[in-house]
Design goal:
alpha/beta; Rossmann fold; six-stranded parallel β-sheet; binds nicotinamide-adenine-dinucleotide; 299 residues; 10 helices
Length: 299
């Protein structure tokens, strides 16, 4: 039996609609409009697209969008001063610095300069500490979006074996923490893991966040597995015409869908959930900063 497709685009539309309603309630009940500041250093084309989409979707959700574009040769000191100013700015509830930043800057120093309460990317060590301790904090957007897709697909995850490929701070580790919180038995694999195929075959839920095109083959999937493909890899696609490219995930989609019970496509799977979760984090951060109970917004 061929597996079903987990339509991340539609899930994200539904989530953004709920966020818009809650934001409208926040504005009408409390007179507070959430503000999200996005800082982009340089002119990386992919980052430009992400930042533009974030701005559009922030406004569509009824929030204030502030964009700061700094030249490639901006000093780290100047960027950190910019971040500190945003920390102080009362109308800014969430701060996101678009990564990657130019090589002369320390990504970690930037992350640690953002106030944990405004860290809507959820990467500050204070927030990763909260997540690791099972406490409330800002959860990184892509892992949060992945976990939402899994829960909306499967419901109760208790006792299921979740295999996570990848152990980055951005994706793999936080996804593993979220699935542990949902009472999964979690196996985290990485570049040194032996017998990767056998481990994948034992999964009820398989999350691939590696960055290697189609690493996971169809015969690595046991019947009934739910697959979340976080990978985004751009490959040449001469079949589409000269100079054309295509996006593929970390899973061989056509091979895996024959065995999986459900699978996210690339594109159109996890990707759209990332910005939706960024908006959710901005809304939650606004509530926390103003001592407003999030549950009162009708979300
Ligand atoms: P990363 O390079 O920081 O981490 C990759 C991880 O994969 C590492 O932990 C490494 O140990 C592991 N790995 C490498 N080779 C492996 C192998 N052969 N077997 C098992 N594990 C192996 O990457 P990242 O930032 O975690 O991103 C992973 C992928 O997710 C990338 O394709 C990235 O583009 C994508 N991504 C997507 C979104 C989204 O919105 N959908 C967001 C962030 C990242």
């Amino acid at each position: 039996m061929v597996g079903s497709i987990i339509d991340g685009k539609q899930h994200a539309i539904n989530l953004r609609e709920r966020i818009k309603i809650a934001t409208d309630n926040l504005i009408s009940k409390y007179g507070i409009t959430p503000g999200l500041a996005v800082v982009l250093v340089g002119t990386d084309p992919a980052s430009e697209i992400y930042v533009r989409n974030k701005g559009i979707q922030t406004k569509e959700a009824g929030m204030e969008s502030l964009e700061f574009r700094l030249p490639e040769d901006t000093s780290e000191e100047k960027l950190l001063k910019n971040v500190k100013d945003l920390n102080e700015n009362q109308s800014v509830n969430g701060i996101l610095v678009q990564f990657p930043v130019p090589e002369h800057m320390s990504q970690q120093r930037i992350i640690e300069t953002i106030l944990p309460s405004k860290d809507v990317d959820g990467l500050h060590p204070v927030n990763s500490g909260y997540l690791a301790s099972g406490l409330k904090g800002m959860v990184p957007c892509t892992p949060q979006g992945s976990a939402l897709l899994i829960k909306e697909t499967l419901g109760d995850l208790s006792g299921l074996h979740a295999v996570v490929l990848g152990r980055s701070n951005l994706v793999g580790k936080p996804i593993a923490q979220l699935l542990l919180k949902e009472n999964c038995t979690v196996t985290v694999c990485h570049s040194r893991t032996k017998n990767l195929k056998e481990v994948c075959l034992s999964a009820d839920i398989l999350v691939a966040a590696v960055g290697i095109p189609e690493l996971v083959k169809g015969d690595w999937i046991s019947p009934g597995t739910t697959i979340i493909d976080v990978g985004i890899n751009r490959l040449d696609a001469p079949e589409k015409g000269p100079g054309k490219t295509k996006l593929v995930g970390d899973v061989d989609y056509n091979g895996a869908i024959k065995n999986a019970s459900s699978i996210t496509p690339v594109p159109g799977g996890v990707g759209p959930m990332t910005i939706a979760c960024l908006l959710l984090n901005t809304l939650i951060a606004t509530c926390e900063q103003n001592n407003i109970e999030f549950s009162k917004l009708g979300f």
